[in-house]
Each structure stands twice: as structure tokens, then as C-alpha cells.
Design brief:
The structure holds three protein chains of three kinds.
Chain A (H helix, E strand, L loop, with lengths): L3 H32 L9 H11 L3 E3 L4 H20 L15 H21 L3 H29 L7 H10 L2 H4 L1 H17 L18 H4 L5 H26 L10 H27 L9 H22 L3
Chain B lengths: L2 H22 L2 H27 L4 E5 L8 E5 L1 H24 L10 H16 L6 H19 L7 H32 L4 H7 L5 H18 L9 H7 L2 H11 L1 H14 L5 H24 L3 H28 L3 H36 L10 H4 L1 H14 L6 H16 L5 H32 L7 H4 L6 H19 L5 H10 L8 E2 L5 E3 L5 E2 L1 H22 L6 E3 L17 H11 L1 H4 L2 E8 L7 E9 L3 H21 L7 H22 L1
Antiparallel strand pairs in B: 1-2, 3-4, 4-5, 7-8
Helix pairs in contact in B: 1-2, 1-4, 2-3, 2-4, 3-4, 3-10, 3-14, 3-20, 3-21, 4-5, 5-6, 5-10, 6-7, 6-8, 6-9, 8-11, 9-10, 9-13, 10-14, 11-13, 12-13, 12-18, 13-14, 13-17, 13-18, 14-16, 14-17, 14-20, 14-21, 16-18, 16-20, 17-18, 17-20
Chain C lengths: L1 H9 L16 H4 L5 E7 L5 H9 L11 E3 L8 E5 L4 H13 L5 E5 L1 H4 L25 E3 L6 H12 L2
Parallel strand pairs in C: 1-2, 1-3, 3-4, 4-5
Helix pairs in contact in C: 3-6
Classes of the chains: A mainly alpha, B mainly alpha, C alpha/beta.
Chain lengths: 318, 676, 163
């Protein structure tokens, strides 16, 4: 059904995510700057960067093909689509019934795959290196994500995000269950890996040996780079939004009430900002781990997710 | 005469005329006529299968066609599904094959190859129609023999073909022995060899015998489907066969292993006990992960695709095993869902794997190379083939909007909901199965990013790849048919909801339809989860347009400048500097070091004058199939040992042989006197 | 915990921002709108200027607050910070680096050597008589000094970002 309220919810939520994604990165950089004793460039700086990049001249490096050209668009498009599918602001949304948590995870993976292909498409050593590392991490992230999905969807008996969120709002006890907590911790760890944050990848590195995401996009310039940066920021925002939606679902509009929607949008902003600021603060004290230590981290999170599933089975009184 | 019988008759006639045409016609028109008749065989199979999927059944018995047993055929929705898949693949591959063999030279255009191809196609279509043990075994063996002949077509070109042929011949016949033993035991105990008699007599078997029958049959079927650890022939034979044969084997023949398991396990033996299906599920999960891990590290494009077949059939077995577990756990609705997911994955896999192998065949034809390390840059030289392979890869990585995602989504749904089925087994096994599926999906993404990115993108890394040209129109048409099928499966899988329900019902597992198709989406009947592929694809397009429009609206400079690749100021990067398939997979190889046990060797040659100066560094890296290494090598060594010992008996003297005969007869008489 | 206490005790170390340097803003810089991605190119420097550039981006001077950020590839860069007299070996790479950056792009010559009036003027290994950067590529902003102080480098960058 296509209700006016649902459409407004959807549009408002997507617009908020798009407008807020660079601001979130700005906030995180600002938090980091404060903790390092610096003044920082201001929360608007990522938007200035994007604006400037869009104004710059587009460049096609010789020897690259359609994959290189399409990847920035696909990255942003998957980010937008995920922003629409996750009930960040309200569960009454025309998009919510068309895809579930598995689809969301797969769409994010689609973005990763496209970018890796673009990295390989340049035919440079860095592009291939980044793609190879990114796919290694992506392959190892997948089991944890799906097991967490399994653990989170067991109480509501459905992988539909709207059903999970509604279930968690109606029964707050589910939030504090060991299974849910373990799954959220596991999901948080893989969120870091998926979004390319410390300790898996350093988003502000300039050292080729440590690059993962950055190495794949070294050939992009101007408007294409603007989309890549926006896409990466969108990914981080929707992943944190997803985490916030699952961990603290209160405030998400479950009915067709306008004040509730407004409140939900405000709360969403607050939740994601707080989560981002917390992540930035934590990152100050973390170092990037060696690439071949990343599997250990991911294996740890996999174990947590497995524990989450078994805990939910044994504690549900079977 | 109804549609099914007409179609089957056409199919059989087409195969025989095709074989005759292949043998008799001159080289110039041979591949045209034989190919066209093969396509007729496939089209007839597709028609018969589609008709059966609408709910019609047909059965017939021809007692005089074969001595002693006669031929019994029966087509229901379950056989129909496999016939339709095989038929569709055969049609597309036959069209492709005409282009592949055009010009009438090369081994694949030779008389024997063109004569055997229609026969092989017909057996693929007809095996699911068999409804007695003897008919089934006969067709099964015909399929094995014809495919073996086709694998060996290029034996004069490469010695590896011969070794692959030997592996395949031995393993498929060991499988036949197991199958023969299992089905003969079944028929003996059930009191009849027609499938009807087996079905009716299954309850007469003791649980032990039923288990034994199932294990014997499943081992044979699993080996045909390339399940670990009986997969050793598959990554050898599939890459070495001519590409259209690889496509037929990987997309149609392996499916019959699944068909056999479902038919014997569910339909004939009546689902049986929990441990059977646990075995199936564990075998499937192991094949999925092991297969795709090997695919990730493979540098040979066709070997990669072959190992990916191991993976996908493994996923299918996970679904089949889960269906059996749920059935044993008392949840027939969920069992139906799991089986439907597995069967849908069979269909999807057939689509994208046939497309993948045919595209790989085009590459092989254009460059003579299968080694990804020596390919690259093909998207500029063969744009159509590259985009078709990209579509196949999209299906294989199981990401939306590809067709592989639809069935993996369903499979995951069935497993996730399966945790509601009581029992400790499900609680322990299902999460691990979900993890195995997820890991194999993740690794598949790495494998196919490698195949596409290294093989088709970037720049050519060998003169062969530089000189590649696009394939002829007929090959592209064949691939186009497969691509259209993949796209349809990806966008409107809902139309298969009812046929799948009928196939599930025909397996006698459950009569509850597991899915509803309508409104362009796939919705589970008993739960709220839904996936709307067409909606998602449309939304993806809208998002792409929005992103593109946003970029366009804000930008100031629209003229794109071509610039040299950024070379760090150090001179143009040569294709040799680009990442190869080996280097791409290196991190994963390191991560899975303990499982794969790769063999690496670094040889440093020093300059004669000083050990501090290096003249040459030679690096070799090989990832042997570890299961093969650990399991088969000792076994083969044992056989060789026994054989060489036994040779001492054959001294070459007639006296000794007469002596053996005398001793043998006396011993037999002795035994008889004691026993009587 | 030790780190948190350290952070709390240290507080803000960035010095108050000096007033904007004034001076004319290069034409290309107007389009950047307060954001400048910087790629350093060492064309043959003694590394003195590099140390000072490093200092300019440290917490005390904090060049990032004016919208400048170091990046890893000239493709991402708007500003190329060139140091040192241009040596023969670096002449072609310097040109290639400038060509690799997308328009609008600016070249900032840092230090006396890059301006052609440094210690190495007339040396045998230079690409031109003086080794000045502008002998090879167009220079938009000049920062004199041997080496220039971080504050001077920041003043140059602020001309570009306009903040």
C-alpha cells in the first residue's frame, strides 16, 4: 500500500541520511580533533569537500572501462537503497516490505564488490591490492553478519527489519537478552570492517602498505571521487543507523502519526551522532591491526555471533 | 499422445537422427545439422518438462524395448523440473556449439564428437524420466559414457585430457557400482524393480537396509554432483572437456545427482531418518566451503567455474538435507520450503553456470588461454562476452539483483526459520550451515571478482589476450538465450512458485505449497519475510538515476579528460605490474593456510662472485587439492601396491595357471561339501 | 584510562588562529570553496621543508582547521605542495604529477629552493639553471624561507582555502 505518510517517512529518512552522512563524518573528525588537542576543520568540511570535488574536472584514466565509470554510481545507489530499506525513522514505509535484513546486507556487499571491480579495472598494482584486501575482508565478514541476522531475527521469527524493530520496541526484554547483546557486539565489530574504520582499515591513511579502501580509489578524481566519498559516508551512516535501530529502537515511529515521525527523525540524528562520536573517540586509542591479524578479529566476532545464536536457542527454553 | 509423450518421442528421434547426421554428413554442414538436432532434443525436453510442471503426468512401459526388463518411463513434476532445466541448457548450448564448431575443423567438429553430442543431450533429458531401476541405470550409464567420450574429444591436444578422462571414467563407474548395489538391494527387498514397486515396498525394508540403500545411492549421486570428498573428477574433467560440453556437464549433468538423491531419498525410500539428511547437509556444507575456497585460489578460469559447481551443488545439498531434517523433525511446511529453495538453486545455478562456461569457452576460443594470469583486458576486445560473463558472475556471487541471490535468500530463510524445529541437531547444525552458506557466498564474491576483474578487466597481460576478437554471432546468440533466462530468473522468480510447489509435492515430501509467487515477489506462505526482486531492481535503477542526476546537477565541468594512469611519476605502469589472479588470492591463501596447505617455493640464485648479489629469484606457488592429496593419493598408492604384488601370481607359465584352476575348483568343491 | 587522563590534562594545544593572511586569492582557488586536498611533491629537497610541512599539520599549528588535508594521490589533490629545487630526475615526474591532478589545481612552491633562490641554485643536477619550480610548471602561490616556518606554510595554504 502506498500511503502518503509512508512515502513521506521514506523520503524524509533518505534525505536525512544523505544530508547527514557528510555531517556525521564531520562530527567524527571534529571529535577526533578535539581529543588530539586540535581545533578541527568544522563539521561542514566534508560537505565542502564534496562540493568542491563535484565542481572539479572529471578524469578518465586511459585503459579503464565501464566498471570504473559505473562503480561510484553503484556505490551511492546501494547506499541510498539501504537507507530506504532500513526502518531508521519509521516502520510504516513503502520500502520496508520489499526487502529484509539479508537484502540489506547483500546490497552493501554489492557496493563492495563493484568498488573492488573498479579497483581491478584500473590495472594498477594499487587498485588490485586494494581490491584483493577488500574482498578478503568482505568474505570473512559475511558469516558473522548472517549469523547475527539469524540471532536477531529468531525472537520475531522473521528477517523483516520492520518486524524485528517492532518486536524489539514491544518487548524491551529482547533488547537485554544475552543473545541480542552478543549479536549486537558481533555486528558492531563487522560494522567497523564493512565501513572501513579502525582497527580494520584506516580511512585517513596515506601509506600504501596499510591502505585497503583508499588503494582501490586512488585513480578517482573530481565528481567521481565526490560520489565515492559520499558513498563511503552513506555506508558508515546507514551501518551506524542500523546498529542504532537494532540496539536502541525507541523513538522509531511505528504508527502513522506526524509528531512521532518528527520525533523519530530527531532521535535518529541524536542516536547516530552519539554512536559516531563514540566511535571516533574510541578510534583515537586504537591502532590499525596488521592485515593478517584482521581474520583473528573477525573470527572473534564470528564466535560471538555463534554464541548469540546458541544462547538464544538454549535460553528460549527449548 | 499428450505433449509429454510427443516431446519425448521427438527428443529421442532427434538424438538418433543427430547422431546419424554427425556420423554421416560432411564436415561442412555436420555441426550445423547435428547442432540443430541437438537443439531440437533440448527444446523437446524443455517442452516435456514444462508440461509436467503444469501438473500433467505421463507414464508408459515398453516391455519389448529392452530384453528381460523392458523400459519404463514416468514423468511427474519433479522429473519435469530437471528435464526442463536440462532441455533449456541443451537448447542454448547447442546453438552456441554450432558457432563454436563452425568451420568444421578442430576436434570438437569431428565426426565422433558431433555424433555423441546429441546422444548425451538426450540422456540428460531422459534420465529423470526413467521409472524403473534398469531403465534408470541404463540411461545413467549411457549419460556417463557419452559424457566421457565428449570429455576425451581433445585428447590429442593435451595430455591432461587423458588423465582427466581416466579419473572421470574410474570415478563415475565406481559410482555406478555403488548405485547398482544400492538399487539392486532395494529392488530385491522391495520385491520389484519398477519405481512404483519400490515406493510400495519401501516399508518392507528394515531400517538398517534402508539406511544402507540410501548411503550407497547418495554416495553415487554425491559423486556425480561433485560433492566433497567424491569431487576429485569434477575439477579435472569439467575444465578439460570442450566448453559446450563443460557447460552441459556443469549445468545439467551434475543436477541429476540432486535429482537422484531427492527421488530415491524422499520419493522412493520415504524420507527416512534424521541421520541420512544430516549426512547430506554436512556433505553439502563441506562441499560448498571447500569448493569455493579452491575456486578462489584457482588461476584456471574453467577450473574456477568447475569448483564453483562443487560449491553450488553443495548449497543445493544443504537445502535437500535441511528439507529431510525438517521432515524428520515434523515440520513438513518448512521441509517443502527448504526443498523448493534447493530446487530453485538448481535452476539458477544451471542458468549462470552454463553462461559462465560458454563465456569461458568464447575466451578460450579467442585466446587459447584459460589461465587468468595471462588474460586481462578482454572487455575492450570482447565486450559482449565480457558483459555476459559479468551477468553470470552476478548470479554466482549471490548478490541482488542476480538470480543466485533469490535461491540463496530462500535457502537462508528456510534455515533461519528451521531453528523453530525442535531438536538439538537443528540447534547446532543450522547455525553452522548458515555460516557455511555465508562464508561460501563471501568467498564466491572474491572468486568471481577475481575472474571478472583479473580475467576481463584491466589490460591484456599476454599477446594472446591482446589479439582476442569477439565470438561469432551464433555463440553470442546461445549465450544470449542463457542470459535472458538468468535475467528472467532474477527478476520474476515468482512465476516458478507454483511449478516448484508441484515438484516438491511430486517428491512426496509435503503437499503444502511453500511459496506464493504473485505480485512480482517471492513471499513465504507462513511468514512475513518477502523479497521483491523486480521492485529491488527498479529501485536500484531509480537510485542510480538519482545519483547520476545529482552528480550532473552539481558539477561545473562536464568534459571528461582522458589522463594517463597515475604511475607515481615513475614511468607508465606495464600490464606486468597489474594484479594477477595469483596475487589477488594471496591474502585468502594465507588466511586459509591451514586448510589448504599450499606449496610455495622460493629459489634464489646468487651471482657467482658474491652471495650478497642476487641473479634470479624464482617463485612457485601451487595449491593442490588437499582432500585429493590426503585421501586419494594413499588409496591409489595402496591399489598400485596390491596390484604389483598380485602381478607375482601371474608368472606367465601355463602350468601355474592350470594349477590355479585346479586349486580353485577343488576349493569350491570343498566349500560346497562343507556347506551342504 | 591513562590515555583519557592524558587527553583531559593536555586539553587544546592548537594555537589561536592568526588573522587571515590577506593577499590576493589565486583565481583557481575561488572555485575550491574552502576545501583543499594537498599532495606533497618532493622535487629534490633537503627535507627541511618536509619537516616544516609536517609541523604545519601537527596539532599546534593545525593546518586542517583551515580546510587543508593531505591526500595520497594527485588525483585526489587540488594543491600540489612542491619543495626543493627541481632536479633532473624529478622534472618529468613533477610535470606528470601536475598533469594527473584534476582542474582546478594549484601549485604551491614551498621554500627558497623551489623559488629558484635557494642554497642549490646553479647546482649541476638541476633541471633548469635555478631549479625553480616555475621553470617547469605554473606556480600559483609562493612561500619563501629556508626552510619556511610552519606559520608561513599555513599562511600560503590559507590563501588557497580562503579561510
Amino acid at each position: 500500500m502506498l500511503s502518503g505518510f509512508g512515502v513521506v517517512t521514506l523520503v524524509a529518512q533518505v534525505l536525512l541520511v544523505v544530508a547527514g552522512a557528510p555531517l556525521l563524518t564531520g562530527v567524527m573528525r571534529q571529535v577526533r580533533a578535539y581529543l588530539e588537542g586540535r581545533a578541527g576543520a568544522g563539521v561542514l568540511q566534508p560537505w565542502r569537500d564534496v562540493r568542491k570535488l563535484l565542481r572539479k574536472e572529471p578524469i578518465t584514466p586511459t585503459g579503464t572501462g565501464p566498471a570504473f565509470r559505473a562503480a561510484p554510481l553503484v556505490l551511492v545507489a546501494t547506499g541510498l537503497l539501504v537507507a530506504a530499506l532500513v526502518p531508521l525513522a519509521g516502520t510504516v514505509s513503502p520500502a520496508a516490505s520489499h526487502g529484509d535484513l539479508i537484502v540489506v546486507v547483500a546490497l552493501l556487499a554489492l557496493g563492495t564488490v563493484t568498488l573492488a571491480l573498479a579497483g581491478l579495472d584500473t590495472g594498477t598494482a594499487f587498485g588490485g591490492m586494494g581490491a584483493s584486501r577488500e574482498m578478503t575482508i568482505a568474505a570473512l565478514v559475511e558469516p558473522t553478519i548472517l549469523l547475527s541476522v539469524l540471532a536477531l531475527s529468531m525472537p520475531s521469527g522473521s528477517t523483516s527489519l520492520a518486524a524485528i524493530v517492532t518486536g524489539r520496541i514491544d518487548e524491551p526484554a529482547r533488547l537485554a537478552s544475552p543473545s541480542s547483546l552478543l549479536a549486537l557486539v558481533a555486528l558492531a565489530v563487522v560494522t567497523l570492517a564493512e565501513a572501513g574504520r579502525l582497527p580494520v582499515d584506516n580511512p585517513s591513511t596515506h601509506l600504501e602498505l596499510t591502505m585497503v579502501h583508499e588503494a582501490m580509489v586512488l585513480e578517482y578524481a573530481g565528481p567521481d571521487l565526490a560520489l565515492i566519498e559520499l558513498g563511503a559516508q552513506l555506508r558508515l551512516t546507514v551501518l551506524l543507523g542500523l546498529l542504532a535501530t537494532l540496539a536502541v529502537p525507541w523513538g522509531i515511529a511505528t504508527t502513522t502519526s506526524w509528531p512521532a515521525l518528527l520525533l523519530a527523525l530527531v532521535l535518529l540524528t541524536i542516536k547516530v551522532t552519539a554512536l559516531g562520536a563514540g566511535l571516533a573517540a574510541a578510534e583515537v586509542s586504537w591502532a590499525k591491526v596488521r592485515l593478517f591479524r584482521v581474520p583473528e578479529l573477525l573470527a572473534g566476532s564470528f564466535l560471538l555471533a555463534l554464541l548469540a545464536v546458541t544462547a538464544s536457542y538454549f535460553l528460549s527454553g527449548a | 499422445m499428450n505433449t509429454i509423450s510427443t516431446a519425448l518421442a521427438v527428443s529421442g528421434a532427434g538424438a538418433l537422427t543427430g547422431a546419424a547426421a554427425g556420423l554421416g554428413l560432411p564436415a561442412r554442414i555436420r555441426s550445423w545439422i547435428a547442432g540443430a538436432l541437438t537443439a531440437v532434443v533440448g527444446a523437446a525436453g524443455l517442452a516435456a518438462g514444462a508440461s509436467a510442471l503444469t501438473g500433467r503426468t505421463w507414464s508408459a512401459s515398453f516391455p519389448s524395448l529392452l530384453p528381460l526388463a523392458g523400459v519404463r518411463l514416468r514423468v511427474d513434476a519433479l522429473s519435469g523440473l530437471f528435464m526442463a532445466v536440462a532441455g533449456a541448457v541443451v537448447v542454448a548450448v547447442a546453438v552456441y556449439g554450432i558457432g563454436y564448431a563452425r568451420g568444421g575443423h578442430g576436434p570438437v567438429a569431428s565426426r565422433p564428437a558431433q555424433a555423441v553430442l546429441p546422444l548425451f543431450a538426450a540422456t540428460l533429458v531422459l534420465v529423470p524420466a526413467a521409472s524403473s531401476v534398469s531403465t534408470f541405470l541404463l540411461l545413467w550409464e549411457l549419460m556417463a559414457l557419452t559424457s566421457l567420450l565428449l570429455v576425451l574429444v581433445e585428447h590429442a591436444e593435451r595430455s591432461t585430457v587423458r588423465s582427466a578422462g581416466i579419473w572421470y571414467a574410474v570415478m563415475t563407474h565406481l559410482g555406478l557400482v555403488l548405485l547398482l548395489t544400492g538399487l539392486a538391494l532395494f529392488a530385491a527387498k522391495a520385491g520389484g524393480e519398477s519405481f512404483d514397486a519400490l515406493r510400495a515396498g519401501a516399508h518392507l525394508l528394515s531400517p538398517t537396509v534402508r539406511g544402507l540403500v540410501f548411503v550407497l545411492c547418495f554416495a553415487a549421486f554425491a559423486s556425480k554432483a561433485g560433492a566433497v570428498p567424491l569431487h576429485a573428477w569434477l575439477p579435472r574433467a569439467h575444465p578439460e572437456a570442450p566448453s559446450q560440453v563443460s557447460a552441459l556437464m556443469s549445468a545439467a549433468m551434475v543436477n541429476l545427482g540432486v535429482y537422484g538423491t531427492v527421488r530415491v531419498g524422499f520419493d522412493l525410500l520415504g524420507a527416512g531418518s534424521r541421520w541420512w539428511w544430516l549426512t547430506v547437509l554436512v556433505t553439502g556444507a563441506a562441499s560448498a566451503v571447500y569448493g569455493i575456497l579452491q575456486a578462489t585460489l584457482a588461476t584456471d578460469l574453467k577450473r574456477l567455474l568447475a569448483y564453483s559447481t562443487c560449491e553450488n551443488l553443495g548449497l543445493v545439498f544443504v537445502g535437500v538435507g535441511a528439507a529431510g531434517l525438517f521432515h524428520a523433525g515434523g515440520d513438513p511446511a518448512l521441509a517443502g520450503l527448504a526443498l523448493a529453495a534447493a530446487l530453485l538453486h538448481v535452476v539458477n545455478h544451471a542458468g549462470f553456470k552454463a553462461l559462465g562456461f560458454t563465456a569461458a569457452g568464447s575466451v578460450l576460443r579467442a585466446t587459447g588461454e584459460r589461465n587468468l594470469d595471462r588474460l586481462g583486458g578482454l572487455r575492450a576486445k570482447m565486450p559482449a562476452t565480457a558483459s555476459l560473463f559479468a551477468l553470470a558472475a552476478l548470479g554466482a556471487v549471490a548478490l541482488p539483483p542476480g538470480n543466485g541471490f533469490v535461491s540463496e535468500w530462500l535457502l537462508l530463510q528456510s534455515l533461519i526459520h528451521g531453528l523453530a524445529v525442535p531438536g538439538l541437531t537443528t540447534a547446532i547444525v543450522l547455525p553452522l550451515a548458515v555460516a557455511a552458506i555465508a562464508l561460501s557466498a563471501g568467498l564466491a564474491a572474491a572468486a568471481f571478482v577475481k575472474a571478472l576483474g583479473v580475467g576481463f578487466f584491466a589490460r591484456p597481460r599476454s599477446p594472446q589476450a591482446t589479439g582476442a576478437t569477439e565470438s561469432p554471432a551464433l555463440m553470442l546468440t546461445g549465450m544470449g538465450l542463457l542470459a535472458a533466462a538468468c535475467a528472467a530468473l532474477a527478476l520474476v522468480p515468482g512465476v516458478l512458485a507454483d511449478p516448484l510447489a508441484r515438484a516438491v509435492a511430486a517428491s512426496r515430501l509435503t503437499g503444502i505449497p511453500p511459496l506464493t509467487g504473485g505480485e512480482l515477489r517471492l513471499r513465504l506462505t507462513d511468514t512475513s519475510a518477502a523479497y521483491a526482486p523486480l521492485w529491488l531492481a527498479a529501485a536500484l535503477v531509480v537510485s542510480l538515476v538519482l545519483a547520476g542526476a545529482g552528480q550532473r546537477a552539481w558539477r561545473r565541468r562536464s568534459r571528461r579528460r582522458a589522463a594517463k594512469l597515475w604511475d607515481c611519476g615513475g614511468g607508465q605502469p606495464t600490464p606486468r605490474m597489474a594484479y594477477t589472479a595469483t596475487s589477488f588470492a594471496e591474502p585468502l591463501q594465507r588466511v586459509f593456510d591451514d586448510v589448504l596447505a599450499p606449496e610455495q617455493d622460493v629459489n634464489v640464485t646468487h651471482v657467482r662472485e658474491s652471495i650478497y648479489l642476487v641473479e634470479r629469484v624464482r617463485y612457485t606457488n601451487r595449491v593442490p587439492d588437499r582432500i585429493e592429496h590426503r585421501l586419494y593419493t594413499p588409496l591409489l598408492a595402496l591399489f598400485a601396491e596390491v596390484g604389483s604384488r598380485a602381478r607375482r601370481l601371474a608368472a606367465g607359465s601355463v602350468h601355474v595357471y592350470l594349477g590355479y584352476g585346479f586349486v580353485g575348483v577343488v576349493a569350491l568343491l570343498g566349500v560346497l561339501t562343507v556347506l551342504k | 584510562m591513562g590515555l583519557l587522563r592524558k587527553i583531559r590534562d593536555t586539553g587544546r594545544v592548537a594555537e589561536p588562529a592568526p588573522p587571515p593572511p590577506g593577499g590576493e586569492m589565486p583565481a583557481a582557488a575561488r572555485e575550491l570553496g574552502g576545501s583543499a586536498q594537498v599532495r606533497c611533491v618532493d622535487a629534490g629537497s633537503c627535507n627541511g621543508c618536509e619537516i616544516e610541512i609536517g609541523m604545519a599539520f601537527n596539532p599546534v599549528y593545525d593546518a586542517e582547521r583551515y580546510g587543508a588535508r593531505l591526500v595520497a594521490s594527485p588525483r585526489h589533490a587540488d594543491v600540489l605542495l612542491v619543495t626543493g629545487p627541481v632536479t633532473r630526475n624529478m622534472a618529468a615526474p613533477l610535470k606528470a604529477t601536475v598533469a594527473a591532478a584534476a582542474e582546478p589545481r594549484l601549485v604551491v612552491a614551498v621554500g627558497d629552493c623551489a623559488l629558484g633562490c635557494g642554497e642549490f641554485t646553479g647546482g649541476y643536477g638541476l633541471a633548469s639553471e635555478t631549479g625553480a619550480v616555475e621553470d617547469l610548471v605554473r606556480v600559483d602561490v609562493r612561500i619563501p624561507g629556508c626552510p619556511p616556518e610552519p606559520a608561513a606554510i599555513i599562511a600560503g595554504l590559507r590563501q588557497v582555502t580562503g579561510r
